[in-house]
Automatic annotation (TrEMBL):
S-adenosyl-L-methionine binds at residues 151, 172, 194, 233. The lineage of its organism: Bacteria, Pseudomonadati, Pseudomonadota, Betaproteobacteria, Nitrosomonadales. Methylates ribosomal protein L11. One of its GO terms (cellular component) is ribosome. This is Ribosomal protein L11 methyltransferase.
Length: 297
């Protein structure tokens, strides 16, 4: 089965309205993106939690998918009329051929080497190194496939620093990748916490796939713990707000590992956590930093 992809340029005032109108007129899906994505004019609109929204894209591009027999000129005209526009916007149409979408999606995820002994391997791939420590992962709704620099930085820290038997808290566990890696690298008891129920569900599934046992909770259900290692790969503002709680979870002399921090934000986070930790930048990759420190007595 083939489809038609409709592309319409819109501004900040009309993009959302056109999107809703196209869905009402039979679109199978509609997405809105920055018309200047990938260029120097790309507009940032998503801030971190706690920051005011930066607004909407001033120049947007709508991508709508329709059945092959849909009358797109008539649909665009009807959408414009529904919004009270003086004239229908210009548009382009592309044919979309039948494809194996599952195979196309899976092709985006290949095995990822973290170190000489640690690999992330999607469930549909064979491991390039069966003798390595392989984290079998099914990329899904939760953050953490190993492809993002912040996740890799944390995995590399765990690979370098775990000696075996440590207790560990993974706060913001996402897919459970850090918790699972810690167990495969020799950690003892591991607890993961995330605000997203889909994340805790994905973490439990991925732990089962990897034949390890960890506990995953929503924040309100999580037990109070004191651990040897606290790992949190989130974002700068949440990390700053969570600092007292994460510090309280670390034993005296325990370690903390923080990521999800842009390089220029590192000093702000360090300034907050130095109340409880002797902490510095441990590593950096592609504009992101990983911080690590030791809990003061």
């Amino acid at each position: 089965m083939a489809w038609q992809a409709l592309k319409i340029a819109a501004d900040a005032k009309t993009a959302e309205g056109l999107s809703e109108a196209l869905m009402e007129l039979g679109a199978l899906s509609v997405s809105i993106e920055d018309a200047h994505a990938g260029t120097a004019e790309e507009q940032e609109i998503f801030g971190e939690p706690g920051e005011p929204p930066a607004g909407v894209w001033q120049d947007a591009l709508l991508n709508a998918l329709f059945e092959a027999d849909a009358d797109l000129p008539a649909i665009v005209a009807a959408a414009a009329e529904a919004l009270g526009l003086a004239a229908a916007p210009g548009f382009e149409v592309e044919a979309v051929a039948e494809q194996d979408w599952v195979r196309q999606t899976q092709a985006q995820f290949a095995p990822i080497p973290i170190s000489s002994r640690l690999w992330i391997v999607p469930t549909w791939h064979e491991s390039p190194d069966p003798g390595a420590i392989n984290l079998v992962l099914d990329p899904g709704l939760a953050f953490g496939t190993g492809s993002h620099p912040t996740t890799r930085l944390c995995l590399q820290w765990l690979d370098r620093n775990l000696r075996g038997g440590e207790t560990l808290l993974d706060y913001g566990c996402g897919s459970g990748i850090l918790a699972i890696a810690a167990l495969k690298l020799g950690a003892g008891k591991v607890v993961g916490v995330d605000i997203d129920p889909q994340a805790t569900q994905a973490s439990r599934f991925n732990a089962e796939q990897n034949q390890v046992s960890a506990e995953f909770y929503l924040p309100d259900d999580a037990p109070s713990v004191k651990v040897d290692v606290v790992v949190a790969n989130i974002l700068t503002n949440p990390l700053k707000m969570l600092a007292p709680m994460l510090a309280n979870a670390a034993l005296p002399g325990g370690r903390i590992v923080l990521s999800g921090i842009l390089s220029h934000q590192g000093e702000d986070v360090l300034a907050v956590y130095r109340e409880w930790f002797d902490i510095e930048v441990a590593d950096e990759s592609e504009g992101w930093v990983c911080l690590s420190g030791v809990r003061k007595a």
